[in-house]
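S., here's the first fold you wanted:
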Amino acid sequence: MVIDIERCKQDLLAVGSYTIQQISCPYDFADNWEISMQNVYSEFKDKIKRRQRIMTMVYAYYIGELINLSITPREKWLEFVHLKQIRREHHYYLGITRVYDLFKSNNEQIYRTSYLSYRKLLDMKANEYKELVDYSQTVDEIVFDEL
């Protein structure tokens, strides 16, 4: 799959309204981590199966957020994977962390994307992903400076 990095960059600049209703945080801080993770992971898998591009990225983002609440994110993820017997864990971990890292400064931007997808982020070569993250940080700095 050839990924058009310039189109990905345009998604990071997209402004305006979006037609998909945003979801509020899909987990409750009152629940323990495992319950929260199971609930969000189930939604994530459902959105993948239904080929819902934006919602797949939204739930991947929230899984990434949950993982990063831990002092040792990678180990916490591996503990969850072992408990739930998830196969291809590295595949999921890579995609989830890429979505989270790319959108952590502005997760609402996920809803404005028209090209980017969980799959495209997962399939990017490391240098392509780094270029996209660097671009995102530059955009964030420009927007922040204007405020």
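And the second, which I think is the more interesting of the pair:
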Amino acid sequence: MVEFTVAKTKVGPLTERYQNGEYHSVDKRNNEGVKRMALVKLDNSHSKDYKVAYASDPLLVIHGRSGVTHTELRATLEDLEIWSVANFTPIEIPHGAGWISGFKTTPDRVHLIDRIYTNCEQQISEQDLIGDKENFSVYY
């Protein structure tokens, strides 16, 4: 089973992360070249455990739970007929002391969240789709 979240949100390039009682610089990309981005709420607030350079315009972000790879998440999105809906770019998102895999769209694709919600609604049981159309989790 793969768990993932779909949200209308903002992202920002991660510059520093709070660990061991102080802020530390963060590599802007992981070893595979994937950008490290922080989730930023629509009101521009974010966790104080990290610092971001700026917040993007609202866009669509899909991210897995801890331990789900980009490959596993993409395969799940393809199976649910979500992958082809938009051009997704891989990102890494801070989570606890580690990172979780995710994908983001461009701001002009944020409206596709309705289509993604409908695809999920049609293919999985009601109890495995939790939340509203702007922020929901899927258990598949």
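Why I say that: DSSP finds two helices and nine strands in the chain. The longest helix spans residues 113-123.

Talk tomorrow,
H.
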